[in-house]
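Just wondering, does anyone understand what follows?

——
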Amino acid sequence: MVTAVAYTHSFAYLSDRDSGKLFSGLRLAISSPEKRVRTVDTVAQLDTGSDFSIFDGQLLVGALGIDLMDGPVILLASSGGFSITGRIHPIEILHPDLGRFTLDAAISTVPIRRNLLGHDFFQRIQIGFREFHRTFLITAAP
């Protein structure tokens, strides 16, 4: 059985400011569900290998008024062999085309180089990659 997917949005890969390499990333705003008036603009990389979305605590904690140590602890391990500790907190992801998503995301307890959108985010969208064109396509899931 063949299934056709109609995507509503197309995004070009972003360029890493340090290396110049292209990556599949989204510019978005993050807020706390309890304090929606505060938002932080950031970029997050789409990571199909990450179970959780992971955000830099140094970026979010002060700006959003999150009590980092209040959240349940989680050990985050990379395929490269290093690990860090994070805390799970509800956050809202806001994107002008895709809408608003509430996730229980991991917030790092140490600075991290890149925010990641993981499987918890992918459960809310339909995504397709066009590597040759360095673009990805998204439709928000109903």
